[in-house]
Amino acid sequence: MARITGSVYTSHVPAIGAALDLGKAAEPYWQAVFKGYEYSKQWLRDHKPDVIFLVYNDHANAFSLDIIPTFAIGTAPEFTPADEGWGPRPVPKVIGHPKLAAHIAQSVIQDDFDLTIVNKMDVDHGLTVPLSLMCGQPQAWPCPVIPFAVNVVQYPAPSGRRCYMLGKAIRKAVDSFDEPLNVQIWGTGGMSHQLQGPRAGLINKEFDTAFLDRLIGDPDGLSTMPHIEYVREAGSEGIELVMWLIARGAMDDVNGGKAPTVRHRFYHVPASNTAVGHLILENN
Amino acid sequence: MSLDKPYKDVPGTTVFDADMSRQGYHLNQFCMSLMKAENRARFKANERAYLDEWPMSEEQKQAVLARDLNRCIALGGNIYFLAKIGATDGKSFQQMAGSMTGMTEEQYREMMVGGGRSVEGNRYTEEKK
Ligand SMILES: [Fe+2]
After folding, report:
1. Which of A93, A106, A256, B35 is least surrounded by CB atoms within 10 angstroms?
2. Measured between CA atoms, how close is A47 to chain B, in angstroms?
3. Which chain B residues touch A194 with a CB distance below 8 Å?
4. Which helix or strand (DSSP H or E) is residue A116 part of?
């Protein structure tokens, strides 16, 4: 039986990827970001999963306005890093896990979550930056990754509650997979940021801190936060944070098990336009 | 009964909802076309001619030519799509975001290093008056 052993939460700011790719990681501005992930890289080496289920959003790269799936699961054997306009990131291609992905799709759809199944897509910084933050610059990513893309570009994104309940359904799906796989689930995006209009540059440290506290201690309550509160308090792009609730909903404690251990917590402003938040929770 | 859109009173913010997306469809798809290197080259060679291949409004075309991102957004553009224009121009995301705030690039960068724009006074349009 497969099992979800832990969850990782992190921002996926594109400039972080650019800093790494262009060799700027040693600059003090970026060191302040990367030092928050030193522990995490070691933790991932010590707790290497068999598969990472990576929740992220596409930023007008794989999906244009022609088709806008609310929830899309990548079932392909591999995924190529997208050319977002600056050329593709020089990072390894992402190896998928079609068998587990197909299993999760079937289970979750039967549980009333109508996923879009994607057999071909490129993956953008939303997926590759978290891998870079957690793994550094390896020749190949340490394990297969199932990309799970959530629409947060065209409003409305799915509600926090919907995301949280979906996390529970994904957890149930993993539990019913017949191979003994160690699966991690990652939720990415956020934290507070706004990239558009005269209010661009908005950061709300109080909101972010409370969000991290509640994600750990009161995810059920946090999941009922309405969209407008994200937009008003965390910026129009801060709404990406609903994706963290998918990962949180898959953890033991909210599915009849024990409370997780908080392995790591980090917060820093800024990376480019954005507040960087990061958390590692381990099931017991 | 109409739809509840409580985000209309957030200052300096245009939420890219289904209605904006409808208005901005061709503008955003034009931006998307700039993901291909050969299209970037054609656009750079003759911006007006390239824009004329798209069923965009004249206002949308003018906003693109002027690189007026606030105007683009008011006409249905979305920042993740508009970022492809910035990429074509060799601009970073921070330069693009800053260009919409009325601040210089330096001022905007310094604001971010200083912790970003405060939410105080920036939650409701009434507060801005
Ligand atoms: Fe994002």
Report:
1. A256
2. 34
3. 13, 117
4. strand A116-118
Q: Identify the CA nearest to A4 among candidates A244, A260, A184, A263.
A: A184
What is the model's pTM?
A: 0.97
Q: Among this protein's residues, is A12 annotated catalytic?
A: no
List pLDDT tens digits, range A201-257.
999 999 999 999 999 999 999 999 999 999 999 999 999 999 999 999 999 999 999
Chain A residue with the nearest C-alpha to that of B117: A202
Q: Which residues of chain B make contact with A66, given a CB cutoff of 8 A?
A: 29
| β-pairing verdict for A116-118 and A71-74 | parallel
pLDDT value at residue A175: 98
The secondary structure of chain A in percent helix, strand, coil, rounded to multiples of 5, reads 40, 25, 40
Name the one residue in this structure whose structure tokens are 């910084």: A125
User: A69 with A155: CB under 8 angstroms?
Assistant: no
- Record: contact A60-B88, CB cut-off 8 A: no
Of B12, B78, B79, which is closest to A198 when you measure between CB atoms? B12
Q: Point out which residues pair with A278 in neighbouring strands.
A: A10, A266
Q: How far apart are CA B3 and CA B17, in angstroms?
A: 12
Q: Looking at the predicted complex, does its ipTM rise above 0.85?
A: yes
Sequence-distant (6+) residues with CB within 8 A of A161 are A223, A224
* Dihedral of the alpha carbons of A133, A137, A140, A145, in degrees to the nearest 10: 10
Q: What is B15-89's CATH number?
A: 1.10.700.10
Cα distance between residue A188 and residue A67, in whole Å: 22
The Cα–Cα gap between A77 and B41 comes to: 33
Residues with CB under 5 A from ligand 1 (ion): A 126, 189
